Phospholipid-transporting ATPase
Amino acid sequence: MSDIPLHSLGRKGKTRAGYVPLNDAQDTDMPTGVLRAAAARSVNLTLKGKGKQRERYTDADEFDEEATLLGNRDSTLEEVEEGNAGEQSKRPPRRSSGQRSSSIHKTQDKSRTIPFRPAEKIQSKFPPNLVRNQKYNIFTFFPIVIYEQFKYFFNLYFLLVALSQFVPALKIGFIVTYVAPLAFVLCVTMGKEAYDDYKRNLRDREANSQKYLILVPSSDSGPHTRSVPSSSLKVGDLVVLEKNQRVPADMVLLRTSDASGTCFIRTDQLDGETDWKLRVAVPATQKLADDRELLDLDAEVYADAPIKDIHTFIGTFTIHMPRAHSVDDVPMVQVPTVEPLSAENVLWSNTVLAAGSAVGFIVYTGSETRAVMNTSHPETKVGLLDLEINRLAKILCAVTFALSLGLVALNGFRGQWYIYVFRFLILFSSIIPISLRVNLDMGKTVYAQQIMNDSEIPGTIVRTSTLPEELGRIEYLLSDKTGTLTQNEMEMKKLHMGTMSYGFDSMDEVAHQLASAFGADQAHARNNSIATGAQLAMRGRRDMSSRLRDVVLSLALCHNVTPVTNDDGTLTYQASSPDEVAIVKWTESVGLTLVFRDRTRMELQTPTGARLTYDILDIFPFTSESKRMGIVVRDAHSGEVLFLQKGADVVMARIVQRNDWLEEETGNMAREGLRTLVVARKRLTSQQYAAFKTAHHAASIRLDGRGEAMISVVAEHLEHDLELLGLTGVEDKLQDEVKGTLELLRNGGIKIWMLTGDKIETARCIAISTKLVARNQYIHEVAKLKTSDQVRDELEFLQSKLDCCLVIDGESLQLCLNLYKNEFIEITTKLSAVVACRCSPTQKADVARLIRYHTKKRVCCIGDGGNDVSMIQAADVGVGIVGKEGKQASLAADFSVTQFSYLTKLLMWHGRNSYRRSAKLAQFVIHRGLIISIMQAVFSAIFYFAPIALYQGWLMVGYATIYTMAPVFSLVLDRDVNEDLALIYPELYKELTKGRALSFKTFFQWLMISVYQGAAIMIMSLLLFETEFLNIVSISFTALVINELIMVALEITTWHIYMVISEVVTLFFYVISIAFLPEYFDLDFVVSTRFAWKVAVIVAVSALPLYLIKLIRSRVAPAASSKLL
């Protein structure tokens, strides 16, 4: 890099140092990395107010904005500018540091230039390196939780009713009956929130206290490292990382323990991919003798402002050389060494160093790291059922108000009528029962326990106990691919060579043939007395084994895999792609083992134990554009030069010689869901290779269009007329029962989207192998869209073909969302399946939010890596899988499972039961409150509209608790179908998503039932009562309790032993309690037959018609589930 000409920025003429200005015409003469950074700086120097973009710090107090790529020290700049006194006037005057720093804050430009060993003042400008996932702190906890609770109309109404009891004129009954239930609900909720946040705090503290070594200047020859917790790391620190250590902040890689300056990292928590990624150290620092020399370096790192994109980084690394003098003593400015930095020179936080050790220079900390920027803060999730009940509560409140006003109006607004209105409101407050919240919350706890205790889905944890009903309403499932649908374990399953095909079960034949070819198996060498036909057969067999030898040898050489010996002596393979590791493992299994590799040489061990050595001359790595990977090797023994290439069939088909089988066989393997690679070879003469090398070198030193020139040289000299050796099929192993699970969910009316960070080809294969795409379904690929016209054309096509599966890459997805968000979501939500590839974590979360917002349907997201956390938190229901990628997703999720296939039981069975039970329970509790309020209204209307309570004190307390609570709550054990039917007929799930179990229709049905029963019981009691008022209370209350017990029995579909016990025990308690409440019950009258027959008649009038209606309906219009029983 040091030989690239660098020009002073912002000068008009030549300076004494002889540098010419950088103008547009020269833009193309610089490599793009330097150019981009330099261009950004030149703009900032011109604008003189962008501040941080190119700051040079000379000391802690002074920022020098006017330093350039050349700038060494202020004194040097002054020397250069001696001849520029005339031009100095053209520039804006220098500002004081105070002015300058204020402009920095104004513009909020977050790019930075950090010198080595920066001063404390510079470091303190950047955010601390803290991990913080807590929702609350000690001051915000109480206000936020109270707000979250009282923003619901339901709770606010109860609070007002409870407060009204402290006003003497409005007091009715015991204050405790109004305050206690609300206090109980609030205490339970606050306790749960506090506990959850405490656990989050513990996890944060653990992450923040992890120790890391940083390099520090040391006067003696002793240790030059110091151990500090992760939270104390600052921008500009030099951190030493060991194998398997998590990277604590975003840092530029300066040195690695590998002499080549490379290291592998695991990025599974960032992008979800478990294959290792190669990172390259800055060459200038890798050359240093040891880590200590970094402390003496006069260098600086420029980094662009922090952004979310984990695939992009723009920066430069500058080493300032000592000033040099020419022979004639003219002072010169030595050009500092500037090296461009890209994403491959950077270790993002939350990635893990996979091998060796490394030293990094921190550029972003805390909230500015890519990992934190790609994580959204969790919001409190509220179930749809809770929102629906909140809506019904508003209707009930209107009913209460109308009833109160109606009774006062019928009385002619006499006296202090407004006080009467309030007293009636409080009398009728049981219409909106506080016990509804208590019952529903207890129900949710029961469902959570049932889920966690289910022996068929072991290890399942309910982390958000407020959402089990949501599992019964899911219409969109957004799934990650790697580790969720697949195990990310590759295995080579097929090798096809045109005339021969080897499946997984015939690999021992391959090993045998290979051994023959390498001369290990000499059994076929017989004497000459063999018949001619047999000799011919042998020759054919030898020809077959030599072809097999060629293809296996090519597969063993054409890759980017490095064998690494572990501490225990075992060998593991490192590569950036699991496909390559699978192929190299396969060549090892058939007898050809990769034993050594560095950047220039590769060694293989043959089945006979001999070593084959090959020199690596050139490597052309795989890119998503080229879709192929090539290598030029020379046999160290024979000197033969080979060009080997493997890649996707679409690009290899035009590179290899004509053949009649490749296209057909590729199609066959793709239909099986295998990932296919075409392997080809070309022998090169030394003249051919020399010609290629000359042309390639000439292209590689061009300054403009370098990449394109190099590609065209490879295409011209190497990539034509290759000998087609074979076709490999690699299987990405699926998780257990994925195909059956996806099919079941689709039959249940759930639309499935797959969002992955992987390549289009891979995602397409998995979509086919998981049966996400039906057998003959058309797959429409959308990639590399650049203009709005292209987007519009694609959307128009999709509109006309809604039965296809869409496969789209992240770039095109972003363009579609930016330009035609509404149209895109509207069309894609109608498709049966969508696969989005190369998705960033934020894009996944955005898609989830958009589907929720546009369709108003329930969305479930499932994933297993740190990159899925944002998506899981953005969904209505987030499911995390405890997998190879760690527990990050499962800890952030609402439900944690150990396998994808558990989703069927979770949704089809537990989701179904939770939703139907809660819907039934909610409506019954509302009915229980309504019926007693209707009786109160009838009573008041008959007794001159007086706001006097019909039932007071213990009767009201008992009605909401001991007399009805157990039977009503036992509805949480009801079920309409058995487990097997729910899983055999997933179509039953479609019924639930329509939300018919709790709707305005069912609500008004219950409202009419309550009005009929309340009026019937009260009017019949008044008709049948004798001389005493006390008798009305005893007759009507007894009829009411028995009526409720019968209604519960009518609602039950499948009886459970607890239901029977609760009914019998409640009735028993009621009978016993009569003896202890003489102020409400005349015992002589209660034990008489008159009392018994009157109660029987009243109950028959209120309950019998409903039983008959239910019987007729079950015959005329039975429920879908009852048809299967």
In short: DSSP finds 39 helices and 35 strands in the chain. Residues 257 and 357 are 5 Å apart (CA to CA).
